[in-house]
Every structure is written in structure tokens, then in C-alpha cells.
């Protein structure tokens, strides 16, 4: 017996004071309503309704059941209707996940722009460099830079994120400016270690027209990209960094680009979400909004994909004593 179903039909009969009207409102036959009430009475072992051909009345037990059950059933109906409305408008919560660097530089502007259009939408943002299980964590949409997210996910590549070789002017004043890939290998460099695997990410360089991967002589390794940018900014070493993370530093002259002919690597910025059919409208609107922002020629995500126009560093005489790896 579906207790919720038969109880709902019983309450409908009492409210309508009619088996026929209750059946019409529930979209079933009067016979089905009558059977449901008899089933409920048999399960409880009491009579709930006095019924004649002209009149219905509650027994004491029926009145007591109606008094106890009706408020709860109305509250349940209201809750379900609230969820139903949430699927048809922008009101409600959207949960996002992304690495911290993307959260501040990408998600915050997107959330601001989306809420300007849909102020009833709230966001809960989970920032982590670890790949998040969206279903287990009840996340609606994730963002990730790098390779395409795995199976059982819908993934959209929003834009390319160019990789630039960068250094602080203070580093170049002290250690000189590399003029080739071989000279670059003789310099102090920074590196990034993937938090999930512990593996150091090799640099992507375009040499003789081909993209190659090189393990660089790193004097410091980070599992946080913001910390790596800060290290390069402080003059600790040369880093290969995503353009979107350093465009302000390049424009302000805090960093300069090196060897642009070697910069052939790009990583992708991906938006991904679980495969599902009953997606809330607010989530679908946000996904479409982000996708449109990635296609826009101005604003949005366009600046993330643009290579910096800051001038490259001029070659300076190197101090040979300091060019050895780890010196």
C-alpha cells in the first residue's frame, strides 16, 4: 500500500466533502478513491467515514486523522510546489566549484554579471585545486583549467589559456635574459606540482615548430598557482604561467615576457556539469550565460584567451657566474 497516496486521497475526500470531486481533483476515478479509503481503513483497523448515498461525515477517528495529517500534507504540497517553481525561474541556489585562481579571476566577474540579470539567484562556491566529485558534493557546475574533465560529465571548452614565459625585471637585472631554449635551461625556474597526483607539470615549449615538454631546473615548486606567480613576481625564478593570471602584472611592468617564439602551449578553460535531464532552469541559464560570455568578442572571458601585448624583455648581458642551474 502506498500510504502517502491513500492518505492524500482520504484528505482530498474530506476537503471536498465528496468522493467524486476528490477524484476529479486527483485525476482518478471515484472507484479508485473509494478503494483507497477502504484500504486505509483496513490498514488502521478503524472506520474513518460514514457514507450514505447523499452525505459524508467523519467518524471520531477520521476527524482525528484529518486534524493530524492535513497540516503536514499541505506543508509537503507547498514544499513540492516550491521546488517545482524553482525549476521554472531563476530563484534559488547554484553551487559551483573551481580552483582558487579561477574562482577569483573568472567566477567572481561571472557571478556579478549573472546576478545583475537575475538578482534572485544565490551562489555557493567551493574552491579547491582537487578535482571535485560533482554528484557526491552536490555541485551544479565546475570549472577547471587544463585537460578536459573525465567521463560521465558534460564538458565545454570555454577558451584557450595561453602559457607565457615570465620573469620579474629584478631577476633579469641580476641573472640576465635567456635568448634561447638552451639558455633558458641554465636559469633558475619555478614549477607547479599537481595537488591530486604530486607530479610536477613539465613546461610546454614550441621548438623547431613542434610542441615539446621539458622538465625545467626548478629552484622552487608549488602546488598553488597563486604562490608560484608571487614567487616569479618576487624575482625567485622564471615561470611558465597562464596569461590570465599575469596580465595585470605585465601591464604594470611587474613582469615581462621572455622568448615569445617558444610560447606555443595553451591549456583549456573548461566548464563541466553532470549529465542530467531535469536541470533547474537557473542552472541551465547560468550555463548558457557562461557559454555566451566565452563567445563574446569583448569583455566576458575574451581577455583570458588574449596573449599579452606587453613588450618582451630586452636581452641583457648575463653574469656567467650566476647562470648555472641552482646557483
From TrEMBL:
Domain of life of the organism encoding this protein: Bacteria
Transmembrane segments: none
PROSITE patterns linked: HTH_LYSR (PS50931)
Region feature Disordered, mapped onto this chain: 307-327
Keywords, in A-Z order: DNA-binding, Transcription, Transcription regulation
Domain HTH lysR-type: 1-59
Family: Belongs to the LysR transcriptional regulatory family.
Name of protein: HTH-type transcriptional regulator PgrR
Organism whose genome encodes this protein: Cupriavidus respiraculi
Amino acid at each position: 500500500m502506498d500510504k502517502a497516496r491513500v492518505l492524500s486521497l482520504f484528505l482530498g475526500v474530506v476537503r471536498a466533502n465528496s468522493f467524486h470531486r476528490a477524484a476529479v481533483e486527483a485525476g482518478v476515478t471515484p472507484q479508485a478513491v473509494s478503494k483507497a479509503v477502504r484500504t486505509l481503513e483496513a490498514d488502521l483497523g478503524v472506520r474513518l467515514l460514514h457514507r450514505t448515498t447523499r452525505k459524508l461525515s467523519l467518524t471520531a477517528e477520521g476527524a482525528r486523522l484529518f486534524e493530524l495529517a492535513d497540516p503536514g500534507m499541505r506543508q509537503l504540497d507547498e514544499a513540492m510546489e516550491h521546488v517545482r517553481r524553482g525549476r521554472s525561474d531563476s530563484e534559488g541556489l547554484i553551487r559551483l566549484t573551481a580552483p582558487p585562481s579561477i574562482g577569483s579571476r573568472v567566477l567572481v566577474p561571472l557571478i556579478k554579471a549573472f546576478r545583475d540579470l537575475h538578482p534572485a539567484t544565490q551562489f555557493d562556491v567551493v574552491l579547491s585545486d582537487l578535482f571535485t566529485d560533482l554528484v557526491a558534493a552536490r555541485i551544479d557546475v565546475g570549472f577547471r583549467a587544463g585537460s578536459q574533465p573525465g567521463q560521465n560529465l558534460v564538458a565545454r571548452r570555454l577558451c584557450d589559456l595561453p602559457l607565457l614565459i615570465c620573469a620579474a625585471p629584478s631577476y633579469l637585472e641580476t641573472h640576465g635574459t635567456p635568448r634561447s631554449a638552451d639558455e633558458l635551461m641554465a636559469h633558475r625556474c619555478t614549477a607547479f606540482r599537481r595537488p591530486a597526483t604530486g607530479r610536477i607539470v613539465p613546461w610546454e615549449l614550441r621548438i623547431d615548430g613542434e610542441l615539446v615538454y621539458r622538465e625545467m631546473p626548478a629552484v622552487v615548486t608549488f602546488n598553488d598557482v597563486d604562490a608560484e606567480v608571487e614567487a616569479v613576481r618576487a624575482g625567485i625564478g622564471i615561470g611558465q604561467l597562464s596569461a590570465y593570471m599575469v596580465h595585470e602584472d605585465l601591464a604594470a611592468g611587474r613582469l615581462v615576457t621572455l622568448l615569445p617564439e617558444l610560447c606555443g602551449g595553451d591549456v583549456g578553460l573548461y566548464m563541466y556539469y553532470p549529465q542530467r535531464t531535469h536541470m533547474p532552469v537557473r542552472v541551465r541559464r547560468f550555463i548558457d550565460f557562461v557559454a555566451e560570455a566565452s563567445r563574446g568578442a569583448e569583455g566576458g572571458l575574451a581577455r583570458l584567451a588574449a596573449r599579452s601585448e606587453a613588450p618582451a624583455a630586452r636581452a641583457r648581458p648575463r653574469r656567467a657566474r650566476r647562470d648555472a642551474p641552482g646557483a
